[in-house]
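Final report, closing paragraph on structural work. Over the funding period we assembled a curated collection of sequence-structure pairs, and we close with a single example.
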Amino acid sequence: MKIGFLSLFIFVCCLSYGQSSMGQLTVVEDGNNLIICAGEDFSFNVLGSVSMPTDLGLPAVNYDPGVGIAIFAQPPTYVNNELINDPNFLGIVLPQPNSIFISPFIFTYADLLALLPPALNPLPMSVTLYFQATTLYDFNVPLPYIAVPGNPTDAAQSNVIALNFHPSIDVTVNQDCTNHLVEINVAQAGMLGATFDVINTFPSSVVFPNNLINQTTTNATVFTGQNIPFGFDVVSNDGCVSSVSETYVGEVVATTTPVSNVCEGDSPFPINAVPNGGTWSGNANVLSAGTFNPSGVNINVSTTYTLTYSPPTPIGGCGVAATLDITVNPDANSAF
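Its predicted structure, as stored:
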């Protein structure tokens, strides 16, 4: 009996007071400034030893220990290892089983946004989130260890790391080919007072002004020519970058094929212009779908019709129309 009692005592002791441990949590992110920009990946590492929770042998509760990353909307305030009772607890992600536990825990910006409420995706402003590594009783169920009433929790958490997530930098590019300019608008939601540098990447002949203020518009220097590839980086004062690569289309200039004077009784004939695929406009009585009909209007004197050809214009470019004058002479009348 004494041996059985002692064995039971040791069993209960170990179940009730076994304790896991967690190493130091560190983060690796661009710039080493605790700011996460749109599109940036980052990772957490657990440095030091990690000891998993004790198996309590709970009925209908699987024991498959591991480690996960807990996320909080505000600095955590829970007590007695009860993460899920913290009002700012958002969830646990990237659980790893004890059998293959490795670090780092690799995050993407997009994956993290998907964990947030719809009101925060996309981010309407700068948001700070708090991260902590924690041991899990069953890594298949991403919840921290839940204790049996009367028993202390056998869980461990790391230090807390705060990361500031910035909204994406939205760049709108409009081409003003009439004035040979590219118009740039930069906006970053909720970041009033933010400033940006616009850094030219190619070609070197195009210079963009620096020190743009959030939600303002500026122009590049004059472009000369057509179909010019160009690129630039918009860099915020906190180091976030949005890269743009486009082609300056420029002007598409139309030319028309001259037509000699025609007579009122001549048959309809096609009129020509380049580049192909544009549209003709003018007097609808004599013009239809690129065909000119001299007898469309009864005339008594020579009449000149001015027609306009607008070339097809790629997105971002502008067309320079061409005109065509066609003079129609009236048929001769005989009188006795």
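The radius of gyration is 36 Å. The longest strand covers residues 127-136. We thank the funder for supporting this effort.
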